[in-house]
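Q: A small favour: would you put together sequence and C-alpha coordinates for a protein?
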Amino acid sequence: MQNRITELRELILNAAPDQSVAQPILNCEADEPLDKVIPFSSVIVLGVIIALEDKYKIKISQEVLKRVSEGGITLSKIAALISDMESKPR
Protein backbone atom coordinates (compact mmCIF):
# COMPACT_ATOMS: atom_id res chain seq x y z
CA MET A 1 0.00 0.00 0.00
CA GLN A 2 2.85 2.44 0.81
CA ASN A 3 4.32 1.98 -2.69
CA ARG A 4 0.94 2.79 -4.21
CA ILE A 5 0.64 5.94 -2.08
CA THR A 6 4.12 7.03 -3.17
CA GLU A 7 3.09 6.49 -6.81
CA LEU A 8 -0.09 8.50 -6.21
CA ARG A 9 1.87 11.41 -4.74
CA GLU A 10 3.94 11.66 -7.94
CA LEU A 11 0.91 11.14 -10.15
CA ILE A 12 -1.03 13.95 -8.46
CA LEU A 13 1.98 16.27 -8.54
CA ASN A 14 2.42 15.62 -12.27
CA ALA A 15 -1.32 16.12 -12.94
CA ALA A 16 -1.32 19.55 -11.32
CA PRO A 17 -1.24 22.49 -13.72
CA ASP A 18 1.00 24.33 -11.24
CA GLN A 19 3.31 21.83 -9.54
CA SER A 20 4.58 24.40 -7.05
CA VAL A 21 1.06 24.63 -5.60
CA ALA A 22 0.80 20.82 -5.42
CA GLN A 23 4.18 20.28 -3.69
CA PRO A 24 2.59 19.65 -0.24
CA ILE A 25 1.21 16.36 -1.62
CA LEU A 26 4.69 14.89 -1.26
CA ASN A 27 4.68 15.14 2.55
CA CYS A 28 1.07 14.98 3.72
CA GLU A 29 -0.40 12.17 5.80
CA ALA A 30 -2.04 9.45 3.71
CA ASP A 31 -5.39 9.96 5.46
CA GLU A 32 -5.38 13.76 5.31
CA PRO A 33 -8.11 15.16 3.02
CA LEU A 34 -6.33 16.37 -0.09
CA ASP A 35 -8.43 19.51 -0.44
CA LYS A 36 -6.84 20.69 2.81
CA VAL A 37 -3.34 19.92 1.48
CA ILE A 38 -3.55 21.55 -1.95
CA PRO A 39 -6.17 23.59 -3.75
CA PHE A 40 -7.79 20.49 -5.29
CA SER A 41 -9.45 22.23 -8.22
CA SER A 42 -11.53 20.44 -10.81
CA VAL A 43 -8.59 20.67 -13.22
CA ILE A 44 -6.41 18.65 -10.85
CA VAL A 45 -9.22 16.15 -10.18
CA LEU A 46 -9.71 15.66 -13.91
CA GLY A 47 -5.96 15.23 -14.43
CA VAL A 48 -5.79 12.64 -11.65
CA ILE A 49 -8.76 10.70 -13.05
CA ILE A 50 -7.17 10.59 -16.48
CA ALA A 51 -3.82 9.58 -15.01
CA LEU A 52 -5.42 6.81 -12.90
CA GLU A 53 -7.28 5.46 -15.90
CA ASP A 54 -4.13 5.57 -18.02
CA LYS A 55 -1.67 4.18 -15.48
CA TYR A 56 -3.85 1.54 -13.82
CA LYS A 57 -6.20 0.78 -16.75
CA ILE A 58 -9.30 1.27 -14.61
CA LYS A 59 -12.47 3.20 -15.41
CA ILE A 60 -13.43 5.95 -12.95
CA SER A 61 -17.19 6.35 -13.16
CA GLN A 62 -19.22 9.11 -11.54
CA GLU A 63 -20.35 6.60 -8.90
CA VAL A 64 -16.76 5.63 -8.11
CA LEU A 65 -15.70 9.28 -7.92
CA LYS A 66 -18.59 10.06 -5.58
CA ARG A 67 -17.64 7.12 -3.34
CA VAL A 68 -13.96 8.08 -3.07
CA SER A 69 -14.71 11.76 -2.48
CA GLU A 70 -17.24 11.19 0.30
CA GLY A 71 -15.78 12.73 3.45
CA GLY A 72 -12.80 14.08 1.51
CA ILE A 73 -10.44 12.49 -1.00
CA THR A 74 -7.31 11.03 0.61
CA LEU A 75 -4.32 9.12 -0.72
CA SER A 76 -5.43 6.10 1.30
CA LYS A 77 -8.89 6.15 -0.28
CA ILE A 78 -7.47 6.43 -3.79
CA ALA A 79 -5.02 3.57 -3.13
CA ALA A 80 -7.84 1.38 -1.76
CA LEU A 81 -10.01 2.27 -4.75
CA ILE A 82 -7.29 1.22 -7.18
CA SER A 83 -6.76 -2.08 -5.35
CA ASP A 84 -10.50 -2.71 -5.29
CA MET A 85 -10.94 -1.93 -8.99
CA GLU A 86 -7.91 -3.98 -10.02
CA SER A 87 -9.32 -7.03 -8.22
CA LYS A 88 -12.63 -6.85 -10.13
CA PRO A 89 -12.96 -8.62 -13.47
CA ARG A 90 -12.93 -6.26 -16.43
